[in-house]
Amino acid sequence: MEKNFQGHWDPVMMGKREADVMGEADSACSASGHHPHGGQSLWQHCDLQEERIYMDYNATTPLESEVILAISEALHEAWGNPSSSYLPGRKAKNIINRSRENVARMVGGRAEDIIFTSGGTEANNLVFYTAIKYFWEARGAAEINGQEKSHQNGKSVLPHIITSNVEHDSVKLTAENLSREGKADVTFVPVSKVTARVEVEDVMAAVRPTTCLISVMLANNETGVLMPIRELCQRVRSLNKQQPAPRILLHTDAAQAIGKVRVDAQELGVDYLTIVGHKFYAPRVGALYVNGPGTTTPVFPMFFGGGQERNFRPGTENTPMIAGLGKAAELVSTHLSRYETHLRETTLYLEQRLQDVFGREKIHFNSHFLGSETLPNTCNVSILGPELKGRRVLSSCRRLLASVGAACHSNRGDRPSHILLSSGIPPEVAANALRLSVGRGTTHSDVELAVEDLRQAVQQLEGLS
């Protein structure tokens, strides 16, 4: 079993690490003389007596104990259909309503602004689907009024979407698919190779008369860089006031930011904000913040059913998981300042210990960029050396559980992260990258054990060269 965020061995983490490392290298347990075989679990061949140190909180987080309790209580006491009028159904409905209020409070919205989804991928897809449909409905109304034409210079007009070149796959691949199917024109604005941010001027330069959506993540999951969403929204809103409908819709995927830094959708000025539970110690469900869904801001359902979630996202609600999401949101609202302080202090200590042990000349931080703010918990680091590819180093570690980048990119072999390359990190440095992300319960002792594990792994690999 794996160590949880309070320093205890946690089976939740065991499955996560197994998924991360299976297939990375057959020598994952080479330090202890064991090797994985066939379809058996890697962990059957490793020495489980050593303490494991989990530093992959950007990939997923364990459930807080209060979250587990909320889920358990809902399973036992609120098993009824939330649409039913008798007691178990009313209990379920009350839990959902309370959770909606807690999630809304966490992101600075109103309860009616929250639509529960299966997770961040569905929420992101819902935004893109809505933007395309909204464009055509508004365009159709304009054509009827003689204001627009569906063809220009003999070519059909397509809705235009702007996003960045460092987005999560649930945005990147959705946009690429829309472009490939001829449903939208897409511009991927490159991040600066100096700041690793999407610069506001670059986004504004990409705007066209047909632009219907701008979607830029709030924080990058590999570099930890915070994007200038508030400034971007201010510029786009000013532009929207100067031009006829359809207005440009604004979306940010806040998956990595929530629970680590303050997130206020109203202050940011977005129309949509994606919420992902398993990034802040909640279960694997999510929500979409919409500023006035169906009134101020359009939402078009992707499928149809029994009318749940005000018809925006029909399907009988997953009451226990929504209860867990609500409790986790309540904890963020109550304790965010303490969480953020601990994460930042622990990350700074980790970075200092890496420099102390390996020396400044052998360490390159891929999460340090001139003029950019970053998440308080993310240390993306390369230990320099031709034999020290990130996957090789992690496969040689006996204790450290971490990743070389986003979990959804774990099948891409030893190719350097396109996010790091896009951010100006040289290929030979990016190939050695380790993404170390700390959690609420990561201690200085954990840091010492992790750095020592890395030191031994590096020593082993350089000794083999």
TrEMBL record:
Residues 53-448 form the Aminotransferase class V domain. It is found in: Cytoplasm, Cytosol. Its cofactor is pyridoxal 5'-phosphate. GO terms for cellular component: cytosol. Pfam families: Aminotran_5. Keywords: Cytoplasm, Lyase, Pyridoxal phosphate, Transferase. SUPFAM superfamilies: PLP-dependent transferases. Coiled coil: none annotated. GO terms for molecular function: selenocysteine lyase activity; transferase activity. Its main location: cytoplasm. Its EC number is 4.4.1.16. Catalyzes the decomposition of L-selenocysteine to L-alanine and elemental selenium. Homodimer. Belongs to the class-V pyridoxal-phosphate-dependent aminotransferase family. This is Selenocysteine lyase. It comes from Aldrovandia affinis. The lineage of its organism: Eukaryota, Metazoa, Chordata, Craniata, Vertebrata.
